[in-house]
């Protein structure tokens, strides 16, 4: 996109009144639009963000108990993994790049760029955003020699050192097909997805039904705390976890909140 | 956007497998992405579409009773109006241009381009799409000499012949501020919005909680039927309508559907 287009959208920001009741979410949207102009986010990523916004609105834009439970378990899986990998897409790189890097340092875990719509320009743009936020090594750009079985085209390409040999993969919003394929490969998949009904949410081993901008800081805090716990205590958390129960709780919460909201009418 | 970029996104279509369970909604998304490349839809329109997708998913992607009730009333208001106007934004122009034109002919109603993010290129692109689908006259492009009180900047500009003097305005997803301002001006506002909780939905006189791609064909059918009814029968429908009750029904339906869906887990 050329400079004119770029500065034109930037000008939009001034249009949103200071007292607009949805100003914050409008500004997050502008951030994603800018990321699209910088080739970090693909247009389809904007639509996916919109879906997330809707579910976030329904849960009340707060981290609820079901998400906290999932975050605790995610933390336990990540710190006990042999080769944990954080899979990064365009939306995550735009919204939480510093948190991704920080999390990768304290676990420690590898970072891999993993895109549904992969092209050279985007790979490099996302890698650069992560490096600008302190990432020392970003997989998934020039090392995607391996493929996820049962998938095809650019979507199946992964790094041998990263996702291909990972035992635990943390991912943001993801295509259901790819989540399923990763689980079939025997990996533990932790998904951050506001839609508890998505195939990714239903297929993942741990589903954090929360906004990634709230979930990642909480996950960082939990990993820091849990690092001080004994291994067997951490293992016990993992064995007691039930993802289906967490998802049911999330849906029940959303259902009750909609019922409540209808009472104000 | 240049040609290379354009054809690159077009190529994406081949990537979506024929048997992908969400293929239809992915293809609608591609249509909107293409509309963005043609300057008809603004990136924020993609995010708005995503929010709609989520609510549509929750209601089961079908027109429900609460939407039918609202469509019936919308039809009654439109055919008895003195100066009904269909307000068209980028998403409507991309998804239902032929239906907008057809509806405007049978009511008859004027068509006005009405944009949150207005610029010359977009105005003309949307006007052209509507003309390509048979619209003989499109307001809101070179005739926006009037303003909606209490709004500012480009968002307030309207046509004197159209929205400014309209008694009934049909609109798709709309900014809550503008809907409120139109209602304060004494106009009857009919909104098509999948989110029953949006300020537009709560403020409008009639809220059709349905996907615009399903609602417009049904509205066309209803207008055709109702044109044959007696004026006093049509008036009775209007006086019996209760939008709050319709919105409550929509939320109750969504709430119950989420509760049901959680049972399959």
TrEMBL record, chains A, B:
Catalyzes the condensation of (R)-4-phosphopantoate and beta-alanine to 4'-phosphopantothenate in the CoA biosynthesis pathway. It comes from Metallosphaera tengchongensis. It holds the Pfam family PPS_PS. HAMAP family: PPS. The keyword Membrane does not apply. Keywords: ATP-binding, Coenzyme A biosynthesis, Ligase, Nucleotide-binding. Pathway: Cofactor biosynthesis; coenzyme A biosynthesis. It comes from the Archaea. It catalyses: (R)-4-phosphopantoate + beta-alanine + ATP = (R)-4'-phosphopantothenate + AMP + diphosphate + H(+). ATP binds at residues 29, 51, 193-195, 199-200, 211-212. GO terms for molecular function: acid-amino acid ligase activity; ATP binding. Homodimer. The lineage of its organism: Archaea, Thermoproteota, Thermoprotei, Sulfolobales, Sulfolobaceae. NCBIfam families: phpantohe_syn_Arch, PRK13761.1. This is 4-phosphopantoate--beta-alanine ligase. Belongs to the archaeal phosphopantothenate synthetase family. Its EC number is 6.3.2.36. GO terms for biological process: coenzyme A biosynthetic process.
């Amino acid at each position: 996109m050329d400079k004119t287009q770029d500065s034109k959208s930037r000008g939009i920001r001034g249009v949103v009144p200071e007292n607009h009741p949805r100003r914050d979410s409008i500004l997050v949207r502008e951030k994603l639009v800018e990321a699209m102009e910088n080739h970090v986010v693909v247009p389809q990523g904007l639509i996916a963000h919109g879906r997330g916004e809707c579910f976030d609105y329904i849960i009340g834009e707060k981290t609820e108990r079901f998400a906290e439970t999932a975050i605790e378990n995610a933390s336990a899986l990540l710190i006990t993994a042999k080769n944990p990998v954080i899979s990064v897409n365009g939306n995550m790189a735009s919204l939480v790049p510093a948190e991704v890097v920080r999390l990768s340092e304290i676990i420690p875990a590898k970072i891999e760029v993993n895109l549904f719509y992969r092209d050279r320009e985007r790979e490099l743009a996302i890698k650069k955003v992560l490096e600008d936020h302190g990432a020392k090594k970003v997989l998934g750009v020039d090392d995607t020699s391996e493929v996820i079985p049962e998938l095809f085209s650019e979507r199946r390409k992964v790094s041998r050192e990263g996702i291909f040999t990972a035992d635990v993969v943390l991912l943001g919003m993801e295509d259901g097909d790819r989540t399923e394929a990763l689980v079939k490969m025997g990996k533990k998949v932790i998904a951050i997805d506001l839609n508890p009904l998505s195939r990714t949410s239903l297929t993942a081993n741990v589903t954090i039904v929360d906004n990634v901008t709230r979930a990642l800081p909480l996950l960082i805090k939990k990993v820091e705390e849990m690092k001080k716990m004994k291994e067997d205590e951490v293992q016990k958390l993992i064995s007691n976890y039930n993802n289906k129960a967490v998802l049911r709780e999330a849906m029940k919460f959303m259902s009750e909140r909609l019922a409540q909201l209808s009472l104000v009418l």
